[in-house]
Amino acid sequence: MGMTPLPGLVMGTRCGDIDPAVVLFLARQGMTPDAIDDLLNKKSGLLGVGGIDSGDMRDMVDAASSGNASAVRALNMFGHRAALYVGGYYALLGGADAVVLTGGIGENCAPARKKIVERLAAIGCILDDARNEAVRGSAGVITTDDSRTPVIIMPTNEELMIAAKPIFC
After folding, report:
1. Radius of gyration (Cα) for the chain, nearest Å?
2. Could you tell me the CA-to-CA distances from 34 to 14, 16, 75, 91 in Å, in that order?
C-alpha cells in the first residue's frame, strides 16, 4: 500500500497500479474527484475487468471456467500483475530462497496460483499441478521437487497481522 490501499496488485474492487494520467483523463471526461475515487476503489480491479458483477476471485474462477472471456482476462491480468511483483522483487533482492503465497487467494485458489506460477519459470518456479490442487488452506509446496525456486503456500491470519502493533516502532 501507498498513501491509500489503491497501489500494488489489482484487487477485487481496487484498480492496483495504473497510469496516473488515467485520473486526469477521467476528470477531463467530466467525472468529479469523488466519482473517480469511487470508481478506482469500488468499481475497478477484478470487478471492473471481469464483467460478472463480482470482484470475488471464487466467482471469477467459476465464470472463467464457464468460458466468460472477461473473467478469463481478469484472471490472466491478476496472474500477470502478481508475477510482475514477484519477478521485480526477485531481481531487486538478487534471488530468493522461495516464493511464498498467502492470504485468501494464495491459500485457497489453485487456479489463481497457477496463473502466477506459470509466469515464474524464468526464476525457476515449475508448478506441480497435482500439488497445487491438493493444497487448500494449509501449508505446502506447489512446485516440483526440482524447481530452483520453490513456491510455498503459507496460511496467515490477515486480520491479526493488520491489527498487530509493528515491532519496529
Report:
1. 17
2. 15, 18, 28, 38
